[in-house]
Write a structure and sequence with these properties.
CATH class of the largest domain: Alpha Beta
Number of helices: 13
Structural class: alpha/beta
Shape: globular
Order of helices and strands: HHEHEHEEHEHEEHHHEHEHEEHEH
Number of strands: 12
Helix content: 25-40%
CATH architecture of the largest domain: 3-Layer(aba) Sandwich
Bound molecules: ligand P1T
CATH superfamily of the largest domain: Type I PLP-dependent aspartate aminotransferase-like (Major domain)
Strand order of the largest sheet: 1-7-6-5-4-2-3
Number of domains: 2
CATH topology of the largest domain: Aspartate Aminotransferase, domain 2
Length: 377
């Protein structure tokens, strides 16, 4: 089955009780039991909820995974995944990730004895010396937030597996429409469903997709034991969102390429970060493992003052955190999404005070370009 057919039908069987074509929002905390130990497979809504189950089947199918678990946020999905490692274990973490992921490692997991090293995984030769005897996981984002660095998923997977470590990929920026990490050997895919999967900036959620039965059993156990579940209403919203994922991603990609090209030619822009540009250092790799480049574009304005001017001059683009919605959003990574990354580290990654990030929406491209043009001038 094709991607859109799967997106529209996987998990979306007509409701057993009523035939409702759209999976209902089962807004309940518990379920009546027929007798002691006799029930319809649903006992308590933290443990099972039909709306959430439908979404879990849906996104798992899109990622080509056997198992899927929906969480209350992208961060709780990542946190649950990191419960596959224990105190004394070591994780190799890509040196550029969403600031919240870095904060989870540096401020939370480190307090519980999980060791980690930051590695620039865009060059796989950097990985080899980072492995230790206790390395249990390699965690990468590709392309990265916000400087759009691309990591070779097959090469990292081969290297990690030869050393007995799992590979986790945060696939938020591409969505399964443009990149299916499991096909390149990745073990676990995580998402902030807040972004493209939901696509309408009206829900916060996260997802874990994987094939390994034992790891899936543990993630499911964590989901129920810790309880950071996605609500029935949010599950409904994301399920509604994924039905149009293909058409939205095509539109984001089309507009993203146009914005990147416009910025690349703009005299006031020093550098554009977008894997779809032939000048991007991993353009060829991006073409190999992605089927599109998406709508995330970052650009260097040269100074904080310039960035501020652009961010405060846009009229159509909304200044705000987050990404992946139908509307264009613009942000300042250094002070917003990546404020928890130490300044020196930020600067070495290219997350300067002059860097601006745009989540290019699916409005008419002429309007987006006109807005950026007037803000830049
Ligand atoms: O916000 P939440 O749903 O918890 O997802 C966290 C997260 C995880 N992974 C990536 C790649 C992300 O970009 C995010 C959240 N990012 C933003 C809020 C942002 O504006 O970049």
């Amino acid at each position: 089955m094709g991607f859109s057919t799967t997106a529209i039908h996987a998990g979306n069987e007509p409701d057993i009780a009523t035939g409702a074509v759209s999976v209902p929002i089962y807004q309940t905390s518990t379920y009546a039991q027929d007798g002691l130990g006799r029930h319809k497979g649903f006992e308590y809504a933290r443990t099972q909820n039909p709306t959430r189950s439908a979404l879990e089947k849906n996104i798992a199918a899109l990622e080509g995974a056997k198992f899927g678990f929906a969480f209350a946020s992208g961060m709780s999905a990542i946190d649950a995944t990191l419960k596959l490692v224990k105190a004394g274990d070591h994780v190799i973490l890509g040196d550029n990730t969403y600031g919240g992921t870095f904060r989870l490692f540096s401020r939370v997991l480190s307090e519980y004895g999980v060791e980690f090293d930051l590695v620039d995984t865009s060059d796989v030769t950097n990985l080899e010396p980072a492995f230790r005897s206790n390395t249990k996981m390699v965690f990468v984002e590709t392309p990265t937030n916000p400087v759009m660095t691309v990591t070779d998923l097959q090469a990292v997977s081969d290297m990690a597996h030869a050393r007995g470590a799992r590979v986790v990929c945060d696939n938020t920026f591409m969505s399964p429409y443009f990149q299916r990490p499991i096909e390149f050997g990745v073990d676990i895919v995580v998402h902030s469903t807040t972004k493209y999967l939901n696509g309408h900036s009206d829900s916060v959620g996260g997802f874990v997709a994987l094939n390994d039965e034992k790891d899936a059993e543990w993630i499911g156990f964590i989901q129920n034991s810790v309880g950071a579940i996605l609500s029935p209403f949010d599950s409904f919203l994301v399920l509604r969102g994924t039905k149009t994922l293909a058409v939205r991603m095509e539109a984001h990609d089309k507009n993203g390429r146009m914005v990147a090209n416009f910025l690349a030619e703009h005299p006031r822009i020093e550098r554009v970060f977008y894997p779809g540009l032939a000048s991007h250092p991993q353009h060829e790799l991006a073409k190999r493992q992605q089927t599109g480049f998406g709508g995330m574009v970052a650009f260097e304005t040269g100074s904080l003052a310039n960035a501020k001017k652009v961010l405060e001059s846009v009229k159509l683009c909304t200044l705000g955190e987050s990404l992946g919605g139908v509307e264009s959003l613009i942000s300042h990574p250094a002070s917003m999404t990546h404020a928890s990354v130490p300044q020196e580290k930020r600067e070495s990654l290219g997350i300067t005070d002059g860097l601006v990030r745009v989540s290019v929406g699916i409005e008419d491209i002429e309007d987006i370009l006109a807005d950026l043009d007037q803000a830049l001038s």
